[in-house]
Fold:
Amino acid sequence: MLLALSGGCSQRKEILPKAETPVLRTITVSAYTLVLPEGESAQVEFTVKDAAYPFNYNVGSSGCQVKLLLPGGREPVDFYLKGVTPTETQGTYLAVIADAETDSRYDTRASIAIVSRNADTGVESIVQSAGINISVTYDPLSKVTKTGLPVVYMNTESGYDITSKTTFVNGNVTIEGTDELPGLPTAKCRIRGRGNTTWEWPKKPYLIAFDEQQGVFGMHKHKRWVLLANFMDRTLMRNMVSMKVASFMTHLAWTPHSVPVELVLNGKHRGTYLLIEQVRVDKDRVNISKEDGYLFELDFHYDNPVQWIDPHGTCWGMGNGIPFGIKYPDSDEITAQQKSYAKSYISEVASVVYGDGFADPENGYAKYLDVDSFIDYWIVFEVMTNHELNNPGSVFFHKDKDGLLTAGPVWDFDWGVLSFNTSPQGKTGLVCGDAIWYSRLFRDPAFKARVKARFQELLPQLETIPDYMEECRVLLKESAKLNFAMWNPADDRNMNGWQIINGDENLSFDSAIDRLKDNYKTHLKVVGSKL
Structure:
């Protein structure tokens, strides 16, 4: 029997529910605190629910929807979202958060947020977010060791501050070297301030006197070393470049060697310094007899324990007469007889220089002066436009037993060096043509001819100095960032009638170096044309 179903054979269709668009209901984080090592990054996971919620997590794209936000919706400046990647678990992502190296300490509440953007207005709004506390392990010295310069750690007994140029405090020095420059194990020393004008500025220069002789960075062993602050020098290289120029001068008996360093004093970074050999009488420095040798300093500050004004000639700083001081023998060891001899000797030489027959080849100045050293000394000052040969300031002569009066060593090249702001005449003329005794020496055509010949002989080496400046730029660049975050060279105006001195104090580090190079090239041509 056949059974027929009325209505024919029809198949029922199953009605499926309509698929819903995933909705972001929550964001959760795997940790509520995140500590970033200074200058580095750390990771934290976050999970979205619904796991299928689509969003742009490409941090490098303009449409990225993952944000790090501070309360109020601002983006942080001390740290940032470096990257987001999905994990093997659907809906879970790995966020990499990095310290922005702003040198700031922070412990801040922030949120990992997913935002949406209105297609018409471009306005972003937060869809969901999860809070997290972000902090940094701050080590103020961590950056100091990464500048590429050696680090001098100088500590005083009981952490006493260095407040005097005359009174030493006990302490020790440790030097962390580099691949090229060996360090120094902890060595006991005494420390005091130094300098004249430079001591008045906030970034202080220092003198180190080791208990025992130390050979630093391969330089000859000695007890006495100086840390020059170079506070007013936006390029940080005026002294370095000047010593480089002086190193070409084979008629100068000795030129101080130096190395730029970071200084950490009693645990606090103090910036970029130049560790340099102090001008001292020694077999490896100013090599003269310790029994009958003399080291003279000509300085308008007139602050040497043994000093006088020689009446011959004039100088910018003091008008009639030139200030002389005796740096060696030391003031606590020099005898009355030595003082008398030194004063009468300088007077005798000066009277010849300013006498009628000063140019006589047998009985004139050449009988008393090491002329080659005086020529090389002048070229350094002139090429670097250091007007302090005119003042004079930090100008040194020395005399060995039975020897001639010899110029040198060079010292202190930061104020006005390669600055047409300080010496505008350097754009078109000589800066030191009428300096102290040179105003007389240049009246002798034979002397001027020797200077011209020597300058031309040295010119190929002098023309390499801009390349050396570029080497210094690379060497000092990272250190300069830290240094000028602490010190403002334009504060030198308080010692100059509230006018900046070198003229580049308000420029960037790179712009100041560009200016230094241009001034050097300009004046080098001027010197060649005027001799």
